[in-house]
Amino acid sequence: MNPPPPDPLSLLSPRDPDAVGQWTRLPYRDGPRFNVSDLHLHWPRLHVGQELPPPQGPLAEGWALYHSGDFERAAALGLAHAPEGLALANQATAIYANYLEPRESVRQALFKQVAERATAQIASDPDHCQALYWQAYALGRYSQGISVARALAQGLGTKVKGALEHLIELRPQHADAHVALAAFHAEVIDKVGSLVGRMTYGVRADAAVSLFERGLQLNPRSASALIEYARGLLMLHGDSCMPEATRLYERAAHLEPADARERLDVELARAGLID
């Protein structure tokens, strides 16, 4: 069994694009559940990839909802407590859109919302680490939806790369930023080639691999990082890396998920191996 080709990461399946209604609920009942009292006990494991401090007050309830897979309520609570709650709102919205929203138009609209909120935060605080990460994440996923080549032509790639590089300067231990920047290098090389990628966008295959390795060193139990690394190898080197990509997918598929998002990542890895 081999992992799928490097298409955008998602568990969504198409449906009527004009359909309206609430967000799709998490389809798995066997994932971890959290309440406010036990959230702080698990916080270091849950946020090892982001270095986010534990929440206080009502936002703790929102983060418990997020990690339990109630993304819609978590996002609403985060927005209700803006600006402090925007990190929660952006994370819940972006993760939901990436994995569960089946309407492509809605999915893209949600990514744009996250990017716009994060961009506004950065305008007033250029060193806001959470805003930098979720701006890059949302723009990266939005770019996949409109095609990476088109996004590069619109200058979105420069924004993604700049935000992630600045974030790593501010937080060298931010595992998720290393993985996201590695994936950016791989995506660009896959679409425009190594020479144009290096000369025009400053991306390199060796830099991608180093960033993936660093991200996994910082957070070795990250299923999403393992999957992104596998996809990145396939984009950089093609089928010659299929055995290593398969091993990375297998590692991800056998992890014990720490929360709902990781449950989705594990399922994504399992689905990739079946395909």
Strand content: under 5%
Helix content: 55-70%
Report Rg.
18 Å
Main beta-sheet annotation: none
Number of helices: 14
> What is the overall silhouette?
globular
Q: Give the structural class.
A: mainly alpha
Spell the H/E element sequence.
HHHHHHHHHHHHHH
Catalogue the unreliable spans.
Answer: 5-20
Q: What do you see in this structure?
A:
The chain is mainly alpha-helical. Helix content is 68%, strand content 0%. It contains 14 helices and no strands. α6 runs antiparallel to α8 and α9 (175-192) runs antiparallel to α11. It is globular, with a radius of gyration of 18 Å. Mean pLDDT is 91; it is low at 5-20.
Structural key phrases:
globular; 275 residues; single chain; mainly alpha
Write the layout of secondary structure elements.
Layout (H helix, E strand, L loop, with lengths): L35 H11 L12 H10 L2 H10 L5 H14 L4 H21 L4 H18 L1 H6 L2 H15 L4 H18 L1 H8 L3 H14 L4 H15 L4 H12 L6 H15 L1
Helix pairs in contact: 2-3, 3-4, 4-5, 4-6, 5-6, 6-8, 6-9, 8-9, 9-10, 9-11, 9-12, 11-12, 12-13, 13-14
